[in-house]
Design goal:
Blueprint lengths: L1 E6 L13 H10 L6 H20 L4 H11 L15 E3 L2 E5 L1 H13 L7 E2 L3 E2 L5 H11 L3 H21 L13 H13 L3 H14 L14 H21 L15 H5 L6 E6 L24 H13 L9 E8 L1 H7 L15 H4 L3 H11 L10 H4 L2 H7 L2 E5 L1 H8 L10 E7 L4 E6 L14 H12 L5 H11 L7 H4 L18
Helix pairs in contact: 1-7, 1-8, 2-4, 2-6, 2-18, 3-4, 4-5, 4-9, 5-6, 5-7, 5-9, 6-7, 7-8, 7-9, 8-9, 11-14, 14-16
GO molecular function: 2-methylcitrate dehydratase activity
InterPro entries: MmgE/PrpD_sf (IPR036148), MmgE/PrpD_sf_1 (IPR042183), MmgE/PrpD_sf_2 (IPR042188), MmgE_PrpD (IPR005656), MmgE_PrpD_C (IPR045337), MmgE_PrpD_N (IPR045336)
Subunit structure: Monomer.
């Protein structure tokens, strides 16, 4: 890996494009390196993971609406073409315009907040790269091996940006790293020249930079749409760049660019790690998925709460608890904890999206129930249970400098996303326990491997897909590197009788 210094340049400094970050990203995307077996294996795992959570979301309102928008835009084959064209949409038969297929599938994947994650200077769900890259692969008749190389690029670019450039510190939503990474992945897929990928990366960044209000206060259904929008914009940016259209330059370093006005300002300095020429793209191996349908910073706390409830059943009764304080990282405290000062995080009538970002609620329910379920744990009647509301209001968070340091550590052995809980009981005793990483984390008690990814898919697909469809998909995806273009169209699932979305403008 090589560190690339990035700063703001005045217009009269005339920063050559070959020295711009977007160009260096494009060079990585255009470098046809071999994908290693372990990276290929993990890409298969993450496609399974995405399909699992998308399947579980098929009847949820955001996924229904996005799917209806895609269904209104079927692919129209224009002769002469060498492939059928169009892309599949989770849940339904047919081929649709690729940007709208990516939109629908991106919403379905993200709706439950239940797929992979990478956390460093910024936060991300790098699996969000898969829907747009897969949609273009199906549309253009790519092979499974070509798709693998493209996804490796998408993960590499997003994770490298996340390691170096904080967006949330400046109240910019984390999907601003996804637009460029998806565009780069599509560039790899299509074998585009550096110049074209450079223009697509710049356009994708320019059109996908938005504020973090989508994850603040009363969180709306747009939370699931934001990454899908970034993927859709990436596809459109590539299309424009292939037609010779250019982008704002330099998009990162310009005097009126992203860094100068939306991030750290004219004095900001960043160092972005990127693979050197000929170096394998391995960043996907640094990421991790979720066992539970909740914000990643809640994963370890769910595991700890379940264990505490089993060991100390009395903790489930609010009459026995005076207070529970979760000592944790800056991010956990200020984004999903009481440090956010969002009253909605203690509101039993709050939306599912809001409860998903309330660690006091999540910790309480996992403690009482000994489980975390993507539907039952968020049900309105579950949130409104009087004993839960009483205990929930006794749970607060507090930033701990050591847990913040470990959260930002670059050493995988000490990087942590949990914390220490101190519980004061009514009888005067105290219980103190801690957890560093979730059980499913690579360094956790039960790390996820292919067996766990397959089990997650089966569990979430049960009652939604026919058994034959489950087995067909799993057999196909595990042959990914050898799939033909025709077979790649099977990387989807279909369900009879899905709800039809409400009509909109079109």
């Amino acid at each position: 890996m090589k560190l690339h210094p990035v700063r703001v340049y005045a217009s009269d400094e005339n920063l050559p494009r070959e020295q711009q970050l977007a160009w260096k990203i494009a060079e990585v995307a255009a470098d046809p390196v071999t994908v290693t077996p372990e990276v290929t294996d993990m890409i298969i795992n993450r496609i399974i993971d995405n399909a699992a959570v998308a399947t579980a979301s098929l009847t949820r309102a955001p996924a229904v609406a996005a799917r209806a928008q895609a269904q209104d835009r079927p692919h129209q084959r224009v002769e002469p073409v060498e492939t059928p064209g169009g892309s599949t949409v989770f849940g339904v038969d047919g081929r649709f315009q690729p940007e709208w297929a990516a939109w629908a599938n991106g919403v379905a994947v993200r709706e439950l907040d239940y797929h992979d994650t990478f956390l460093a200077a910024e936060y991300s769900h790098p699996g969000d790269n898969i829907p747009p890259i897969l949609a273009v692969a199906q549309h253009r008749g790519s092979t499974g091996a070509e798709l693998v190389a493209a996804i490796a690029t998408g993960y590499e670019i997003q994770i490298d940006l996340v390691k170096a450039i904080s967006l949330h510190a400046h109240k910019i939503d984390h999907v601003a790293h996804l637009g460029p990474s998806a565009a780069a992945g599509i560039g790899t897929l299509l074998g585009l020249p550096v110049e074209t990928i450079f223009q697509a990366v710049g356009q994708a960044l320019h059109t996908t930079t938005a504020t973090r209000q989508s994850r603040k206060g009363e969180i709306s259904t747009w939370k699931a749409h934001a990454p899908a929008f970034a993927g859709k914009m990436a596809i459109e940016a590539v299309d424009r760049a292939m037609r010779g259209q250019t982008s704002p330059t330099p998009i990162y370093e310009g005097e009126d660019g992203v860094i100068a006005w939306l991030l750290g300002g004219t004095e900001a300095r960043y160092e972005v790690p990127l693979p050197e020429r000929g170096e394998a793209k391995r960043a996907i191996l640094d990421s991790y998925t979720k066992e539970h349908s909740a914000e990643y910073q809640a994963q370890a706390w769910i595991d700890l709460a379940r264990a505490l409830g089993a060991t100390y059943p009395a903790l489930r009764d609010p009459a026995n608890v005076v207070a529970a304080v979760l000592h944790t990282s800056h991010h956990t405290h200020y984004v999903i904890g009481s440090g956010a000062n969002d009253p909605q995080k203690y509101d039993p009538t709050a939306s599912r999206e809001t409860l998903d970002h309330s660690i006091p609620y999540i910790f309480t329910v996992a403690l009482q129930d000994g489980e975390w379920h993507h539907e039952r744990s968020y049900a309105p009647e579950r949130a409104a249970r009087p004993d839960t509301v009483e205990l929930w209001n006794k749970v607060t968070t507090r930033e701990d400098a050591e847990w913040t340091r470990r959260y930002h550590s670059i050493d995988p052995a000490e990087k942590a996303f949990g914390g220490r809980v101190e519980i004061e009981l009514a009888d005067g005793t105290r219980i103190v326990e801690e957890i560093a990483v979730a059980d499913a984390h690579p360094l956790g008690a039960r790390p996820f491997a292919r067996e766990q990814y397959v089990a997650k898919f089966r569990a979430l697909a049960e009652g939604v897909l026919d058994d034959a469809e489950i087995e067909r998909f799993l057999a196909l995806v595990q042959r990914l590197p050898e799939l033909t273009a025709e077979e790649l169209g099977g990387l989807t699932v279909t369900v009879a009788g899905l709800p039809v979305g409400p009509r909109g403008l079109f």
